[in-house]
Structure formats: structure tokens, C-alpha cells
Specification:
Number of strands: 5
Radius of gyration: 19 Å
Structural class: alpha+beta
Order of helices and strands: HHHHHHHHHHHEEEEHEH
Largest sheet: 5 strands, antiparallel
Shape: globular
Mean pLDDT: 91
Helix content: 40-55%
Length: 289
């Protein structure tokens, strides 16, 4: 995906993006909990450009909520392609700003504000002709009704509204220089306050659950765990205990359902004090679907 996006405009890009969208869809359908885990807790060893990772995360979230809403497969894939390409016009700037501790300067703010139009032009120059895809990218920062929208667009399509919603939510989960990532419960709460009545916000929070995979949680016992799988009870997901009651790291993660007075979830936990990388391959091998 990084190769395709960085090389645009290019005539082969629309077909390559369609292939990438189909591949992401197949992976997300096969293992949705792992897709969410990698979105909430990105692999620190992955050195892909920040803007590409952000687009990929938004695409995964968008696909899962589109499935939940019962959209056709073709429309789901169009939404994924729009998520892949919504920030084409500022990929390099995103990378610089992700490592910028200070506020953006006026030129950078202007580039951020106009990037939907720049992204649209790059897509057109690459030969993309799908009107719904192009419109979603052009309007993905517009709010229905024109309220606080950059261009004051009143009629915002479903795809653009869905894209804006997942972009806002995944941005809250993405840490960068000068700004820590928010714990998923806080990100969900903030989204629902700002997006009251937005069906896509509700679908997203319902899909991810109160404690989405990848969330670090503290159990009532004092143990620290990472959520691995959602269950029918959103407050009692399957977790892997990583540290004991006194904070001592466990040699092997302990899989259990987080429920009851002792091992129910008390709240979010911080990663400070945890040693080593949280290995999703290892966790999901121990907790097959």
C-alpha cells in the first residue's frame, strides 16, 4: 500500500488499490479481532510511513462497520479504497507532523485544510473514475449540514460521513510526538459526545466494543492484561494476562475471560512497566477463533 500511495499519480494505481482493498477485506473477515488489535495497538517495529498506517487503520475500521451495517461488498470495498486514499494530498506532511512537537505553522495548516482537494486531483490524475469513491475523498472532512465543515458542504454522502467518523476515531487512538494516544474507552466516549446521532459512530463503537482487542486493562485483581477477543458480553472479553498482581511479568500470557469480582475489568491500564513487545502472533496462536 505504501508503494502504491507514494508512487501516485500512476495509471496502475486504481487497479492496485482495488487488489489491496480485496486483500484487506479478506484478512479482516477471517480475523476481525486481530484487525482491531493491530489498529488499537500498532506494531512498534513497523516502520511504514505514518500517513499510510493511518489510512490503513481507517480502512480496516471502515470495512468492519460497513459490514455491520449490511452494505454490499462492492460498496464496502469502495469505502476501503476511499480510506486508503483520503490523505494522498498530505502524506509527506503527515509524516513530518507526526514527529513535530510544536503546533503546525500557517502553511502546514493550509495544506491540511486543502488536502481533500489535493487527494481528489491525484486520484483523477491516476485515472480513478468511480464517482462515489472520488466524492467520499473530496468530502471526508465535511460534516452533514455544513456545521464546522471546511468547505461548508451541506449534502454529504454516506461514504464521506463514514470515512470522517473512522478518521476521527482512529486519530484518537494514534499517538504521535506531542500527543499521547487515548485509551479506547475515552476515545469512544469523546466520539459519541461529538457525534451524537451519527449512525456510523454508533456502529463503530458497537463493533469495537467497550474494550476492543488491543486494549490494555487492569483487572480487579491488580493484574495487567491485553484484550485479545471480543465475546457476547462486551464487558467480559477474552484477555491475556501479562503481569501479575504485583506487576511482575508472566513468563507465559495467561488466557482467561475477564469477568467476576476478582478478574473483571477495573479500567484501562498504562503500558509503563510492561517489558518487551506484546506479540500478537503469539497471543492469537494461543487463542484461536
Amino acid at each position: 500500500l505504501a508503494q502504491v500511495l507514494v508512487g501516485m499519480p500512476a495509471p496502475e494505481a486504481p487497479a492496485a488499490l482495488a487488489d489491496a482493498a480485496s486483500e484487506l477485506a479478506a484478512l479482516a473477515e477471517r480475523e476481525p479481532d486481530l484487525a482491531i488489535f493491530l489498529l488499537v495497538r500498532p506494531d512498534e517495529a513497523d516502520h511504514a510511513p505514518y500517513g499510510v498506517v493511518r489510512s490503513l487503520h481507517a480502512a480496516a475500521a471502515a470495512y468492519l462497520i460497513a459490514l455491520r451495517l449490511g452494505w454490499s461488498r462492492e460498496r464496502c470495498l469502495t469505502l476501503v479504497k476511499a480510506a486508503f486514499t483520503m490523505n494522498l494530498g498530505m502524506l509527506e506532511l503527515q509524516e513530518r507532523m507526526a514527529n513535530l512537537a510544536r503546533l503546525p505553522n500557517p502553511q502546514q495548516r493550509q495544506a491540511v485544510q486543502t488536502h481533500p482537494t489535493a487527494s481528489l486531483e491525484i486520484l483523477k490524475a491516476s485515472g480513478a473514475t468511480d464517482a462515489e469513491w472520488l466524492r467520499a475523498v473530496e468530502h471526508h472532512h465535511e460534516k452533514p449540514g455544513g456545521g464546522r465543515s471546511p468547505a461548508g458542504v451541506v449534502e454529504v454522502g454516506e461514504l464521506a460521513n463514514a470515512l470522517r467518523t473512522v478518521d476521527v476515531y482512529t486519530a484518537k487512538l494514534a499517538g504521535r510526538s506531542g500527543r499521547d494516544s487515548l485509551p479506547p474507552p475515552r476515545a469512544a466516549r469523546d466520539l459519541l459526545v461529538v457525534e451524537r446521532g451519527n449512525p456510523f459512530a454508533l456502529a463503530l463503537i458497537t463493533e469495537f466494543g467497550a474494550h476492543p482487542p488491543g486494549s490494555l486493562v487492569r483487572l480487579f485483581s491488580g493484574e495487567i492484561a491485553v484484550v485479545v477477543r471480543r465475546t457476547a458480553d462486551s464487558n467480559a472479553p477474552q484477555v491475556a494476562v501479562l503481569a501479575g498482581r504485583r506487576g511482575e511479568p508472566l513468563a507465559e500470557p495467561l488466557m482467561l475471560e475477564a469477568s467476576g469480582r476478582d478478574r473483571g475489568i477495573a479500567g484501562p491500564a498504562e503500558s509503563k512497566g510492561l517489558r518487551g513487545r506484546i506479540n500478537p502472533e503469539r497471543l492469537y496462536a494461543q487463542a484461536p477463533a
